[in-house]
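Margin note from the TA: students keep mixing up input and output lines. Inputs are the sequences; the output is the structure of the whole complex. Example:
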Amino acid sequence: GAVVSQHPSWVICKSGTSVKIECRSLDFQATTMFWYRQFPKQSLMLMATSNEGSKATYEQGVEKDKFLINHASLTLSTLTVTSAHPEDSSFYICSARGVGEQYFGPGTRLTVT
Amino acid sequence: AQSVTQLGSHVSVSEGALVLLRCNYSSSVPPYLFWYVQYPNQGLQLLLKYTTGATLVKGINGFEAEFKKSETSFHLTKPSAHMSDAAEYFCAVSEASNTGKLIFGQGTTLQVKP
Protein backbone atom coordinates (compact mmCIF):
# COMPACT_ATOMS: atom_id res chain seq x y z
CA GLY A 1 0.00 0.00 0.00
CA ALA A 2 0.87 3.64 -0.22
CA VAL A 3 3.26 5.06 2.35
CA VAL A 4 3.17 8.38 4.13
CA SER A 5 6.10 9.42 6.26
CA GLN A 6 6.46 12.11 8.88
CA HIS A 7 9.60 13.72 10.16
CA PRO A 8 10.55 13.98 12.89
CA SER A 9 8.76 11.21 14.73
CA TRP A 10 9.21 13.07 17.98
CA VAL A 11 10.57 16.47 18.91
CA ILE A 12 11.14 18.41 22.10
CA CYS A 13 11.40 22.17 21.88
CA LYS A 14 11.54 25.07 24.25
CA SER A 15 8.65 27.42 24.76
CA GLY A 16 8.74 30.31 22.31
CA THR A 17 10.58 28.49 19.57
CA SER A 18 9.16 27.18 16.29
CA VAL A 19 9.18 23.65 15.03
CA LYS A 20 8.54 22.26 11.56
CA ILE A 21 6.98 18.87 10.85
CA GLU A 22 7.20 17.31 7.41
CA CYS A 23 4.69 14.98 5.81
CA ARG A 24 5.69 13.13 2.66
CA SER A 25 3.84 10.77 0.36
CA LEU A 26 6.57 8.38 -0.69
CA ASP A 27 5.07 6.50 -3.61
CA PHE A 28 2.16 8.57 -4.84
CA GLN A 29 1.23 12.14 -5.55
CA ALA A 30 -0.99 13.70 -2.95
CA THR A 31 -3.24 16.42 -4.25
CA THR A 32 -4.62 16.94 -0.78
CA MET A 33 -3.05 16.57 2.63
CA PHE A 34 -4.72 16.85 5.99
CA TRP A 35 -3.27 17.72 9.37
CA TYR A 36 -4.77 16.33 12.56
CA ARG A 37 -4.05 16.84 16.20
CA GLN A 38 -4.56 14.20 18.81
CA PHE A 39 -4.41 14.74 22.56
CA PRO A 40 -3.66 11.77 24.84
CA LYS A 41 -6.49 9.27 24.95
CA GLN A 42 -8.59 11.44 22.66
CA SER A 43 -9.75 11.45 19.09
CA LEU A 44 -8.20 13.10 16.07
CA MET A 45 -9.24 16.65 15.40
CA LEU A 46 -8.84 18.00 11.90
CA MET A 47 -6.75 21.16 11.93
CA ALA A 48 -6.51 22.02 8.27
CA THR A 49 -6.74 20.82 4.71
CA SER A 50 -4.04 21.70 2.24
CA ASN A 51 -4.12 21.41 -1.51
CA GLU A 52 -0.95 21.54 -3.53
CA GLY A 53 -0.14 25.04 -4.63
CA SER A 54 -2.90 26.80 -2.74
CA LYS A 55 -3.48 28.15 0.74
CA ALA A 56 -4.57 25.77 3.44
CA THR A 57 -8.13 25.76 4.73
CA TYR A 58 -8.21 25.84 8.50
CA GLU A 59 -10.92 24.43 10.71
CA GLN A 60 -12.78 26.71 13.03
CA GLY A 61 -10.77 27.55 16.12
CA VAL A 62 -7.39 26.73 14.63
CA GLU A 63 -5.03 29.71 14.52
CA LYS A 64 -3.63 29.90 11.02
CA ASP A 65 -0.85 32.27 12.08
CA LYS A 66 0.28 29.81 14.70
CA PHE A 67 0.04 26.65 12.66
CA LEU A 68 1.57 27.45 9.30
CA ILE A 69 0.92 24.90 6.59
CA ASN A 70 2.71 24.75 3.29
CA HIS A 71 1.96 22.27 0.52
CA ALA A 72 4.56 23.23 -2.03
CA SER A 73 4.68 19.98 -3.96
CA LEU A 74 2.56 16.94 -4.64
CA THR A 75 4.61 14.87 -2.21
CA LEU A 76 5.38 17.25 0.63
CA SER A 77 3.40 19.27 3.14
CA THR A 78 4.84 20.97 6.19
CA LEU A 79 3.29 22.13 9.44
CA THR A 80 5.18 24.77 11.39
CA VAL A 81 4.15 25.42 14.96
CA THR A 82 5.26 28.97 15.64
CA SER A 83 6.08 30.34 19.07
CA ALA A 84 5.25 27.01 20.62
CA HIS A 85 3.82 26.82 24.12
CA PRO A 86 3.35 23.83 26.42
CA GLU A 87 -0.33 23.63 25.48
CA ASP A 88 0.75 22.91 21.91
CA SER A 89 2.24 19.63 23.08
CA SER A 90 0.36 16.94 21.24
CA PHE A 91 0.52 14.16 18.68
CA TYR A 92 0.29 15.57 15.16
CA ILE A 93 -0.78 13.26 12.37
CA CYS A 94 -0.93 13.99 8.68
CA SER A 95 -2.77 12.14 5.98
CA ALA A 96 -2.31 12.28 2.24
CA ARG A 97 -4.86 11.67 -0.44
CA GLY A 98 -4.14 10.96 -4.07
CA VAL A 99 -6.57 9.31 -6.42
CA GLY A 100 -8.95 7.53 -4.08
CA GLU A 101 -7.64 6.40 -0.70
CA GLN A 102 -6.37 8.52 2.11
CA TYR A 103 -3.26 7.29 3.92
CA PHE A 104 -2.06 8.34 7.34
CA GLY A 105 1.42 9.09 8.49
CA PRO A 106 2.85 7.59 11.68
CA GLY A 107 2.51 10.84 13.61
CA THR A 108 4.87 13.29 15.30
CA ARG A 109 4.98 13.66 19.05
CA LEU A 110 5.66 17.30 19.99
CA THR A 111 6.62 18.20 23.53
CA VAL A 112 7.07 21.85 24.41
CA THR A 113 8.98 22.53 27.63
CA ALA B 1 -22.91 18.94 9.91
CA GLN B 2 -21.62 15.45 10.36
CA SER B 3 -20.79 13.74 13.62
CA VAL B 4 -19.84 10.34 14.93
CA THR B 5 -20.58 8.78 18.30
CA GLN B 6 -18.81 5.68 19.51
CA LEU B 7 -20.63 4.03 22.36
CA GLY B 8 -18.21 2.82 24.98
CA SER B 9 -14.78 4.35 25.34
CA HIS B 10 -13.43 1.05 26.60
CA VAL B 11 -14.41 -2.48 25.63
CA SER B 12 -12.91 -5.59 27.19
CA VAL B 13 -13.31 -9.07 25.76
CA SER B 14 -11.71 -12.43 26.30
CA GLU B 15 -9.52 -13.94 23.64
CA GLY B 16 -11.73 -15.89 21.25
CA ALA B 17 -14.86 -13.94 22.13
CA LEU B 18 -16.95 -11.78 19.82
CA VAL B 19 -15.82 -8.22 19.35
CA LEU B 20 -18.52 -5.57 18.91
CA LEU B 21 -17.61 -1.90 18.70
CA ARG B 22 -20.51 0.47 18.24
CA CYS B 23 -20.63 3.51 16.00
CA ASN B 24 -23.53 5.81 15.21
CA TYR B 25 -23.31 8.68 12.82
CA SER B 26 -25.20 11.80 11.88
CA SER B 27 -25.09 13.14 8.36
CA SER B 28 -27.40 15.23 6.23
CA VAL B 29 -25.90 13.79 3.07
CA PRO B 30 -25.09 10.22 2.06
CA PRO B 31 -22.09 9.28 4.12
CA TYR B 32 -18.92 7.39 3.55
CA LEU B 33 -18.05 5.46 6.70
CA PHE B 34 -14.73 4.17 7.92
CA TRP B 35 -13.14 2.18 10.71
CA TYR B 36 -9.51 2.78 11.57
CA VAL B 37 -7.22 1.09 14.06
CA GLN B 38 -4.40 2.83 15.92
CA TYR B 39 -1.65 1.10 17.83
CA PRO B 40 0.25 3.07 20.50
CA ASN B 41 2.26 5.98 19.16
CA GLN B 42 1.40 5.12 15.58
CA GLY B 43 -0.76 6.54 12.84
CA LEU B 44 -4.04 5.12 11.66
CA GLN B 45 -4.59 2.03 9.56
CA LEU B 46 -7.76 1.58 7.57
CA LEU B 47 -9.70 -1.52 8.58
CA LEU B 48 -12.63 -1.12 6.22
CA LYS B 49 -14.91 1.40 4.60
CA TYR B 50 -18.41 1.74 3.25
CA THR B 51 -19.08 3.94 0.27
CA THR B 52 -21.96 2.52 -1.75
CA GLY B 53 -23.38 -0.86 -2.61
CA ALA B 54 -23.31 -3.84 -0.29
CA THR B 55 -24.04 -2.79 3.25
CA LEU B 56 -21.97 -5.55 4.84
CA VAL B 57 -18.35 -4.63 4.43
CA LYS B 58 -15.46 -6.96 5.08
CA GLY B 59 -12.09 -5.60 6.07
CA ILE B 60 -8.66 -6.72 7.10
CA ASN B 61 -7.82 -8.96 10.04
CA GLY B 62 -11.25 -10.60 10.05
CA PHE B 63 -13.21 -7.47 10.85
CA GLU B 64 -16.48 -6.53 9.22
CA ALA B 65 -19.09 -3.82 9.62
CA GLU B 66 -22.65 -3.35 8.50
CA PHE B 67 -24.11 -0.06 7.34
CA LYS B 68 -27.66 0.32 8.63
CA LYS B 69 -29.18 3.49 7.31
CA SER B 70 -32.38 3.14 9.32
CA GLU B 71 -30.37 2.96 12.52
CA THR B 72 -27.63 5.37 11.38
CA SER B 73 -25.15 2.80 12.59
CA PHE B 74 -21.93 1.24 11.38
CA HIS B 75 -20.91 -1.22 14.07
CA LEU B 76 -17.64 -3.12 13.82
CA THR B 77 -17.50 -6.84 14.60
CA LYS B 78 -15.07 -9.71 14.65
CA PRO B 79 -16.19 -13.24 15.50
CA SER B 80 -13.15 -14.18 17.55
CA ALA B 81 -10.82 -11.73 19.26
CA HIS B 82 -7.09 -12.16 19.15
CA MET B 83 -4.58 -10.65 21.54
CA SER B 84 -3.13 -8.63 18.68
CA ASP B 85 -6.49 -6.88 18.22
CA ALA B 86 -5.89 -4.84 21.37
CA ALA B 87 -5.70 -1.25 20.15
CA GLU B 88 -7.65 1.98 19.75
CA TYR B 89 -10.42 1.94 17.17
CA PHE B 90 -11.90 4.97 15.49
CA CYS B 91 -15.05 5.28 13.47
CA ALA B 92 -15.12 8.14 10.97
CA VAL B 93 -17.51 9.69 8.49
CA SER B 94 -17.04 11.82 5.43
CA GLU B 95 -19.35 13.26 2.88
CA ALA B 96 -20.18 11.05 -0.09
CA SER B 97 -18.66 13.67 -2.32
CA ASN B 98 -15.49 12.27 -0.81
CA THR B 99 -13.61 15.45 -0.20
CA GLY B 100 -11.45 13.36 2.08
CA LYS B 101 -12.29 15.39 5.15
CA LEU B 102 -12.89 12.92 7.96
CA ILE B 103 -14.82 13.46 11.16
CA PHE B 104 -13.75 10.99 13.82
CA GLY B 105 -15.54 9.50 16.76
CA GLN B 106 -14.06 9.60 20.22
CA GLY B 107 -12.41 6.23 19.88
CA THR B 108 -12.85 2.91 21.64
CA THR B 109 -10.03 1.12 23.41
CA LEU B 110 -10.27 -2.61 22.90
CA GLN B 111 -8.70 -4.74 25.58
CA VAL B 112 -8.31 -8.47 24.94
CA LYS B 113 -7.83 -10.66 27.98
CA PRO B 114 -6.13 -14.04 27.76
